[in-house]
Amino acid sequence: MKNHSPSPGECGNPGQICPGLALLDSLTTIRILSNMAKRKYRNGISLFGYSIFHPINLILIVNVLVYILQLFAGGTGIIEYYFALTPFRVFHGHYWQVFSYGFLHEAYGIPFIHLFFNMYVFVMFGGLICRYVSAWKFTVVYLTAILTGGITVLLAPVLNEILGIHYPMDLFQTTTLGASGGVTGILVLFGILFPETEVFLVFLE
Fold first, then answer.
1. Which of 35, 45, 119, 160 is disulfide-compatible with 52, CB 3.0–4.6 A?
2. Domain Peptidase S54 rhomboid, which positions (predicted)?
């Protein structure tokens, strides 16, 4: 009798995760992605089981390359000034910061920590989502989440002024950077697709 691994469409409702994937932890995910990475694509190099030109890999590569540029620019230098999100600068013409902040990470303190955890969660959940969702839908969700996060940060000081809330920090001058907005969008999408999945992020039950 041949073993049969159920495909995504054989698990009940469309988008419902198979029973075999109902319990997800970090080690299991790493094994899944490692096995996927062994497969070869006819159109060239693959990474995490997807073509190097798949959005999940392109987004990862862009974030890493931008981080390297930040390091060469001195950590908190000119790149952060022009591309990290600071509401005061956005209101004075740096409109692109509402989006560009999502591709920068902290380049000071402990190296790579901010970038590593954002990209780890992105690949861990995004790699599984992309098995059930088309590449363009995945990209739209990620980029929309970055933009939504940027607009939220931008509106926070304005709402504080309107409501008369006295915050200890000047939110107009506070700088925000990182892919957390986009990663949050991916986590929300994962929760919508697989609402009953148990996730253990620290390798413990």
1. 45
2. 93-197
45 φ, ψ (degrees, to nearest 5) = -70, 145
pLDDT the model gives residue 202: 62
Q: How many residues does the chain have?
A: 205
Specify the pLDDT at position 89: 94
Q: Are strands 46-47 and 50-51 parallel, antiparallel or unpaired?
A: antiparallel
pLDDT exceeds 80 at position 12: no
Domain extent for 31: 20-46
Find, among 187, 180, 117, 112, the residue nearest to 150 by Cα.
180
Domain identity same for 158 and 188:
yes
Other Cβ atoms less than 10 A from the Cβ of 137: the count is 14
Place of tokens 């509106």: 155
